[in-house]
Design goal:
CATH topology: Alpha-Beta Plaits
Number of helices: 4
Number of domains: 1
CATH architecture: 2-Layer Sandwich
CATH class: Alpha Beta
Length: about 170
């Protein structure tokens, strides 16, 4: 069985749609084959105030890279596409690539935590991943993505866009 690796893409600065497309192209070129991708969702900022809403999308990839090497490649793609990291945990950004799951692996190091530690708290993550992997089981919480979404208390606005809205 193939690895089930899921990545969340987000952008709320600049040409958001183009940045998502460029990130997808870079992921496929550098990280591995994209096997599934969710719709694009427009989402309110989470954890900070901004007038600029995000475009978010989740993709599933197949990769020969291990979790640490994959994270390193994702961070390089962010930097290549103009991401400037600040000390603020939540802020506007050109591109954000979060490694959500790497199959059922649970890793907790200084540099990497898988599953992503806040994915079960965020509507902007759970809606797109539930679209492409509703039955994927969170290896720690032992709930599917749909189950996590059904008990979610985050009421942020998350709108699925149809292609001509993007």
């Amino acid at each position: 069985m193939e690895d089930q690796i899921f990545i969340l893409l987000g952008s709320n600065q600049g040409a958001r749609k183009i940045l998502l497309r460029q990130a997808l192209e870079a992921i496929e070129r550098i990280c591995g084959k994209i096997v599934k991708q969710s719709s694009i969702y427009e989402t309110a900022p989470w954890g900070f105030e901004s007038e600029h809403w995000f475009l978010n999308q989740v993709v599933q990839i197949e990769s020969l890279l291990g979790p640490e090497a994959l994270l390193e490649k994702l961070l390089a793609i962010e930097q290549q596409l103009g991401r400037v990291r600040t000390n603020e945990q939540y802020s506007s950004r050109a591109i954000d690539l979060d490694l959500l799951y790497y199959s059922s692996i649970h890793i907790q190091t200084r540099l990497l935590e898988i599953p992503h530690p806040r994915l079960h708290l965020r509507r902007f993550t759970l809606m797109p991943i539930s679209e492409i992997a509703p039955d994927f089981m969170h290896p720690v919480l032992k709930k599917t993505q749909l189950e996590l979404l059904s008990v979610l208390t985050d009421n942020s606005v998350v709108r699925r866009l149809i292609p001509d809205q993007i």
